[in-house]
Write a structure and sequence with these properties.
mainly beta; six-stranded antiparallel beta sheet; about 160 residues
């Protein structure tokens, strides 16, 4: 089981607890647009965290192999960056967790918008899921293993991000 305090860098643990991500570096989008450019297939779900404003932050270890251009994938080091997604206007969260599952690898993801409300779902390889009902706008960060901010915009993935 992937635990944010066991298998992840210390900078990530501290940033989660302090709610100190640099959201000024974020790409503002929707899941509908993001899923056109980025796949979360085979990525690892790290967690969903609530801040004091009741905003949700999803932390996913992005499978760089399936997102080579977006994640600056390098065959030699094969680093998987962290995709950090902030949902400011969450309406509800539903999930199903299987006790026998010791890894939360994402198998599929989908998004649908009905009457201005987004329903975003991530399914895991064990048959579990998390479904988020929210206002469509989200903020996305992409951070490498060392804590450096990468360009989070999947539409222009090779543009540099000088805001580290």
């Amino acid at each position: 089981m992937d635990d944010v305090f066991d298998d992840n860098p210390l900078w990530l643990q501290k940033t989660i607890l302090a709610d100190a991500f640099k959201w000024e570096n974020a790409f503002e989008t929707t899941f509908e647009e993001l899923f056109q450019y980025v796949t979360y297939h085979d990525s690892h779900w790290i967690g969903l965290f609530t801040n004091k404003y009741l905003e949700q932050t999803c932390i996913i270890r992005l499978d760089a192999f399936w997102n080579k251009e977006y994640s600056n994938y390098d065959e030699e080091n094969q680093e998987w960056p962290f995709s950090i997604i902030k949902i400011e206007n969450i309406l509800s969260i539903q999930f199903l967790k299987h006790e026998i599952c010791d890894s939360y690898t994402i198998s599929t993801h989908e998004n649908e918008v009905i009457d201005g409300v987004a329903i975003s779902q991530f399914d895991d390889t064990c048959g579990g899921f998390i479904e988020l009902t929210h206002k469509p706008k989200i903020k996305v960060l992409l951070i490498n293993e060392l804590g450096n901010y990468l360009n989070p915009n999947p539409i222009t993935p090779t543009a540099p991000n000088d805001n580290n």
